[in-house]
What we know:
Number of strands: 20
Shape: globular
Largest sheet: 7 strands, parallel
Strand order of the largest sheet: 9-8-5-2-1-11-10
Structural class: alpha/beta
Number of helices: 12
Low-confidence stretches: 12-23
Strand content: 15-25%
Radius of gyration: 25 Å
Amino acid sequence: xxxxxxxxxxSLAIAASATGQEGEGKPMPEKLRNDRARGxxxxxxxxxxxxxxxxxxxxxxxxxxxASEAAHEAFRDIKFSIRIHWGVYAMQGIEASWPFVRNMDNxxxxxxxxxxxxxxxxxxxxxxxxxxxxxxGMQAFAFTSKHHDGFSMFHTKTRVKQRANxxxxxxxxxxxxxxxxSIEETPFKRDIVKELCDAAHRNGxxxxxxxxxxxxxxxxxxxYVYHPLTIDAAQKSTDFGAGSFSSGKILTPDPTPExxxxxxxxxxxxxxxxxxxxxxxxxxxxxxxxxxxxxxxTRKTIKMMxxxxxxxxxxxxxxxxxxxxxxxEEFVPQGVENTNMPWMSICLLGNIFAYDPVAEHYKGTPxxxxxxxxxxxxxxSFMVCxxxxxxxxxxxxxxxxxxxTGQWLAVNGEGIYDTRTRQVWQSDSIWFTxxxxxxxxxxxxxxxxxxxLIVKSVEPDPDSEIxxxxxxxxLKWTYRDDTLTIHLPSALKKEANRPCKHxxxxxxxxxxxx
Length: 514
């Protein structure tokens, strides 16, 4: 492929085919200076920063503004949220999308692409989901509007014009089509994203819409990022997105500029729909990336998103420092990050992102609470991930564990919600958070010792009371030699007298403000 001709043709074709404005704003200089001064940058160690750093500019364009400081502050106030992975893969009881490119033979892939014709989750109830989230103490939810397999869980006016037929010979693998490949073409028909957004708005729960950059159903998206339809150049270069599974790949002709333009336009238009048709969207959770050649058009799409909803917080995956937040996946950072870009750690409650039918796989309430406290103490937030079954119902064990977490938050939430990290966020196995004004410090411990709790790094106000959250009586305490000793009444030795399980929280009014 002649790279210069490809890029030139792509740019010209997209200019002719894309709809709407590109989002080329002209911010006031003082706003721009403020945006740059905020230092919203990804940690150099971030995996997804590494995937795009060779072509996504380190400093965003001069006409680009991040979400406002108020939006970033509101994001930092979100401490506990949930990600829901749901799509046609629930019908097979498998992981979200990935088996399609990792494990399936051609016949299985072809059968997978027909699942939407019978997808009918009549048990789904958006209001029931939101009530569940509120019982769990969650402030926000993220939902997979479209995952890598290309199936849209929302009504879209965009059309897929060609796809793979895995039963055809390789030279005839790409066939024409004309469909949305979305929930509206299923027996269910209802717009699941709309119902969830409407229910969330009614319940005061923030909305985070997940959207995958790659699309493994639409042949126009070949060969970007693990697409099962590949081209010769993609086997030799990472410019089309790092990573390639060799098994089951079908070699196809290079995409024409018109095909690539159609791909970029559809990608852009679906994000326009999500930010136009569903009211206020607090966050967009982008995933993966589209490689070097598509980056100029992806950048225009991000600018369009910012124009449509200026304060939407955009996950940084695939867009580098144009993002507003980043997301460590399946781990919690070791300490407070050295960046002003806020973060939200996501971890699986079961063994997979999608529905896990095995009760023993769910990790338990103590695991959830510990991860939540650890994230918040370090200045981040925690997102737990589960998926519903093909009928729209969550596993009873997942429900039990998350609702028990909600009960813990009902007692201890004061030390979690609307707090910030402090210079000493952990000492002697005790985690700390503090109120935004720094007047109150919250100390978290997994075990209540007999007799007394020793706390370093906090000097209480001399005339203040110290409380164990959920326990009515103030606790006696002494402070000498830079050490706080909290005296615990003998009644707390009995588990029945304790205000909660798992982790205990002490409120301390701080004397020397930071």
